Amino acid sequence: MIPYGRQDISKADIEAVVSVLQSDYLTQGPVVGRFERAVADIVGARYAVASNSATSSLHLACLALGVGPGDVVWTTPVTFVASANCARYCGAGIDFVDIDLKSYNISVSRLSDKLRAARDSGRLPKALVVVHLAGHSADMERIRELSREYGFAVIEDASHAIGGSYRSTKIGSCAFSDITVFSFHPVKIVTSGEGGMALTNDADLARSMARLNSHGITRETAEMKQEPDGPWYYEQIGLGFNYRMTDIHAALGLSQLSRLEEFLARRHALAARYDAALSDLPLVLPWRDPRDYSGFHLYIVRLNDGDQSRHRSVFEKLRANGVLVNLHYMPVYRQPDFQQFGFKHSDFPEAEAYYATAITIPLFPTMTEPQQDYVVNALREALR
Ligand SMILES: *Cc1c(COP(=O)(O)O)cnc(C)c1O
To answer: Of all atoms in ligand 1, which is nearest to the CA of residue 194?
Structure first.
């Protein structure tokens, strides 16, 4: 069985976790702060707030940006459900903008059209959640221009993209967004077990997310509403959550982070090998912008549009041969829990075309060349 993704845990990773287990603090010790600082420094952002998942970080991001009832948040339909659920947790509405069939990211021209129509009807989004699908950055410069023109906030869901860059900026630097979120789930690029992090350059957003991450409690006198009663005093000044990351998880994440460049280099080498080995097959191979460096979380191929009827059988043949292909993702509006909002599939023709043809084939740093050759041959067979 060859999975589509797999973590790579080293002896040093294990030792880092064990050393926290033997220390004074399992949670709320010094390691979470070190992990936050290390990620912020690598990506070039000023502030970082670690949490127990990217899903939690997306929720904190929306709350800090003031998303609430009566607002609407937009995102791409080709993403994990968490990119959309963060709006719903805040009581806001959710809407989708169709993708671009070359990058599989949100289509900037459709975004621009939809914004113009939304302004006319007085229903502009409060925030846009941009997803860098497979690790390839969305067109952030143009998205930032639109956010300034129409006055909405930008959250980058960079769950697939740590270590990557867009033009001359690191993904996570927030050069073109208000907040960027990373995931450290084991299938992602680096893992902390479960874990997420929100990056920002805005001190107020950072403080707000840090507070909401831990019950809405502050120990900073400057933020307090009342005079402290004594040295024990703290205040809850808003309704927060316990979304904190533990030191155990942070130790794993911090140790993994030291191999980020190595992980990406290996992913790129394997991707280049796939490009060459699959070039004669009737497939659309992953596009990447030569100006950017992808995180390459996923290697997604698409059948030609004329082969849509074979999609399921190709998928089944690969699985039957032990190649655990996947599909990232069924458009979110197709999920039963989203059907209550009445989205029409025909409003998203590119997402539909993508869903009818896409297959994620295995890609992970410990994948061997014989394993990769096996996948290539299985795909060749399945397409015959
Ligand atoms: C994995 C993923 C998430 C959620 O990450 P968790 O850390 O598992 O909560 C959100 N968005 C995208 C695009 C993802 O791939």
So the answer is: 7
